[in-house]
Specification:
Order of helices and strands: EEEEEHEEEEEEH
Oligomer: single chain
Strand content: 35-45%
Distance between the termini: 38 Å
Strand order of the largest sheet: 4-3-2-5-10-7-8
Radius of gyration: 22 Å
Number of domains: 1
CATH topology: Jelly Rolls
Largest sheet: 7 strands, antiparallel
Length: 199
């Protein structure tokens, strides 16, 4: 029975085709951000946007965007984003949990905070002092669940001046398709019952 591999790319700053966006003020296709002090003009609640050196929210000490991810925030046009909370949701089925492998996970944020998976803290003690490069971290696959999962970056401390988050990494899982014979076995009693009634 062939297994199908699925990969989830957690990188911030991607467009809907999975490309890294290197310009500012562009909508992130996968992450949502709530909790900030202000919202970008014309934005819908929860939307996340890329932030780069031409934006009001950019801090010169942050690692430059690219090649795999970009910084995101709630409002790149404001320096006062505050205690933002970024989330990425994805679904897994029960057959995928045992094969889950996280790779190349790294995170940066400003001012301080943590990363959680389904409410479980995966890395804490992050600060703006780590913003010049991605801080590597690991995720415990046992924190995954069948159904909807949420990867979360919480900014828990802020000076209300230049706040954003950045994350990259991948999750790879194998899906095991149900054997074709299972449907036939499940249908067999129904077929026998119909034959008896027609006889």
């Amino acid at each position: 029975m062939a297994q199908a591999q699925q990969t989830v790319n957690f990188a911030t700053g991607l467009d809907s085709s999975g490309n890294v966006q290197l310009s500012g003020d562009l909508l992130d296709a996968n992450w949502t951000i709530t909790g900030g002090q202000t919202m970008k003009n014309g934005a819908t609640a929860g939307q996340a946007f890329t932030v780069t050196s031409g934006d009001a929210d950019w801090y010169g000490g942050w690692q430059a965007n690219g090649p795999n991810s970009s910084w995101i925030t709630q409002n790149p046009d404001s320096a006062d984003n505050g205690l933002i909370d970024a989330k990425f949701t994805f679904n897994l089925d029960q057959s995928q949990l045992a094969s889950a492998v996280f790779s190349n996970m790294g995170v940066s944020l400003d001012d301080s905070g943590q990363v959680l998976l389904n409410g479980n803290v995966e890395v804490s003690g992050l600060s703006y002092g780590n913003a010049g490069a991605l801080t590597p971290f690991t995720i415990n696959p046992a924190d995954l669940v069948a159904g909807q999962n949420t990867l979360e970056i919480q900014v828990t401390g802020t000076d209300y001046n230049l706040e954003a988050v950045r994350l990259e990494g991948m999750l790879t899982v194998q899906s095991v398709p149900a054997p074709k014979g299972i449907f036939l076995l499940a249908a067999a009693p129904l077929i026998l019952l119909l034959r008896k009634r027609l006889a």
